[in-house]
Amino acid sequence: ITLVKIFSYTNSPSFFILSLGALCTTSIGAAFVWMTPLMLTLTGPESPVPMTSSDSSWLASIIELGAMFATIPTGLLADRFGRKSVLLFAGPLVLTSWILTLATRSIEVLYIVRICQGFSLCTAYVLVPIYIAEISEPRIRGLLSGQFQTFFYLGTLYAYSTGPYLNYNTYILSLAVVPVLFMVTFAMMPESPYYLLMSGQTERARHSLCWLRCSCDVDKEFNMIKANVQEDMSMKADWRDLIATKTDRKALLIVLLVSAIKYMSGKAAISMYITQTLAEDAEGMLAYNTITIIQAVMLTITSFVAAFLSDVIGRKPLLIGSSFAAGIFNAIIALYFYLENQTTVDVSSYSWVLTGSLICFCIVGDLGLGTLAHTIQAEYFASRTRSIGGAFTQLVSSMLGFISIKMYQVVEDDVGVYFNYFIFSCILIAGSIFFSFVFLETSGRDLTQIQREMA
């Protein structure tokens, strides 16, 4: 990709709208990991909210339960009131969670906070990919959809960079700024033309498309979208439509497996526990807080670059390569922890292997699997099942994310931390084999063409 092409892409109206809409994702990224830089403090004697390691484990994982409970309402509400309208609701939810966090020193109220943040997490994960897919041109859809993960990592970087250096109240106040910016700016953006056509608002849909393309010469694209929506809406969608035809079943299976591999690869658990892990094992290197910031910076850059690569070399090669490489790095981490904790081998002088492998795992995983899971979700489902399919996928993903985060500590206590990474490695390598034989390439194809090829 040339710099000229990148510049032309990032100066499109769709990219501008993405940047504003993805502030929601940034606020969710910060909310997801806000405890991570404080994990040692929260479980220590000077914690602003006294808690045990078991309490912190529940706080880390319960956000996924909140997301799981919100999946079905989110999909239904998006089809009833619109993608933009429901997405805007995530802002007040996150803001409310920060107000509650400031007002309490109770672990029970923090559980409620994490559930509220889970509702917002679900809204963003279900609707941002759908909204982006429906407003973008086919040539840059992968780029725009991939930036969903980039903005999520900007949120984690923000939390990692401020948490260790601000007092508790100031830190929470700084996190509350992002959802306010999102609510103010995104309120002025257009609704998805797909949704407007689905709800019979033809003129508003045309106006929205003209705004998005900076041109009123959109007849060809508008008629194609209209025909696609009419075809998909000829039958009223419900949950049974996810398995109504062979194409629907194939789309659901592939999307669910991609999401399952992503969430069971250990990424969420590692994001939650990386500070604790590095604090215990990265002796003699940079301060562990510095390492987590470096990791977040590299993840943000990697995710941004991966979004461009997905439209150049394709989704399939990235998925296969990133899953296999991430599996190898997880295997190295598993071996390191096994030697350290289960044998008498002294690995203290090789702590750089652990740090390097953790960072490399996160980077190569995000070159494909981390970035593309949401893109694939938005591309594979037909327009009539896109909201329902996204909601169901998020339901399964949240359940698996909760299991992954919660069981990480349980497995570490009962078997050994090495076994977590052994499981992650096996899942990723099996996933790379699955992608080789089953996955359908979608790069450069419009949403209608993808459905035809799936059939």
UniProtKB/TrEMBL annotation:
Principal subcellular localisation of the protein: membrane
GO MF annotation, one: transmembrane transporter activity
UniProt xrefs under PROSITE patterns: MFS, SUGAR_TRANSPORT_1
Entry keyword set: Cell membrane, Membrane, Sugar transport, Transmembrane, Transmembrane helix, Transport
Record membrane topology: Multi-pass membrane protein
Descriptive protein name: MFS domain-containing protein
Limits of the Major facilitator superfamily (MFS) profile domain: 14-443
Intracellular or extracellular location(s): Cell membrane
Species classification: Eukaryota, Metazoa, Ecdysozoa, Arthropoda, Hexapoda
Gene Ontology annotations for the cellular component aspect, listed alphabetically: plasma membrane
Alphabetical list of InterPro entries matching this protein: MFS_dom, MFS_sugar_transport-like, MFS_trans_sf, MFS_Trehalose_Transporter, Sugar_transporter_CS
